[in-house]
Write a structure and sequence with these properties.
It holds the Pfam family Acid_phosphat_B. The protein is α/β, with parallel strands linked by helices. The chain is 49% helix and 6% strand. The chain has helices at 2-43, 52-57, 74-86, 100-103, 128-140, 155-163, 165-184, 207-211, 222-231, 238-250, 265-274; strands at 194-198, 204-205, 235-236, 253-257, 282-284, 291-292. The strands form two sheets. It has a four-stranded mixed sheet with strand order 1-4-5-6. Strands 2-3 form a two-stranded antiparallel sheet. It is elongated. It starts with a helix and ends in a 6-residue tail after the last strand.
Length: 298
Amino acid sequence: MARRGGLVRLLVTLILLLLAALLAAASAVAEAATATAEVEVELAPAAPAQNASEEAEQPQHLLPRPLIIELPSSAPARAAGAEEVLGERRTRPRRWRRTRSSTCRAPLVIDLPSSSAAGPRDGDDVPEDVRCARWRLAAEANNLAPWKAVPAECAAHVQDYVTGVAYRSDLELVARESAAYARAAPLRGDGRDAWVFDVDETLLSNLPYYADHGYGLELFDHQKFDRWVERGEARAIPSSLKLYNEVRELGFKTFLLTGRSEGHQGVTMENLKKQGFHDWDRLILSCPALVLNSEGGA
């Protein structure tokens, strides 16, 4: 026990000595730092003093003065401009008084020549083919007022069209597209699936009649056309006959419309049958009360 107590006292003594040594070292380091700072302060040169007069002589940084431009009023400016044009030299501009006449401009009047002195009429200096193309476009777009005859400049065009390949090609295209629509249309089978055909220029062609009357250059004459109808010589349009038979086979009921009068019902029915159109369900003439089937019954 005595030996253990001696060891404890020895350790305590060593710890105290170590703490004393650390405190002494810290104190020495602090004194050395203080001495170094004092030496640097003594070695630094003193800045020369500046008196108040030198400070006053230094330029002061001030904001620049704003630039102010005084513009003259509008009235003196106009007066000065007018006086300069007139060559007057005055020191003070004359004050002008604004009046209604100085603010309103005189109207611009243009005298147009009279119609008699205007030269050729509208269209006279336009080439014939251009006038025809202009009329065709307006007619096809339905932008013309109701017209009664084809203009003379389009006579050659109409004849070439209806007697050439273009007219037949257009008819075949319309019939082909109509047949495609008929084949794709769903039929209900309730007896109400119907197809409506016009007679003149759809099923039957009256081209021989129009060839004898200028292809539309002449005004339409109902009496002359009736005499043509009574002959019963209108030919079937081949593409329309093919379409007619196809829609009949698909199960459509066929209704025929015509502007022909009821007095031509017999010759019209015979003409249709002669050209291959049979078994239609109704033929409706211009008289609303007259509706006939292919057998001639109402």
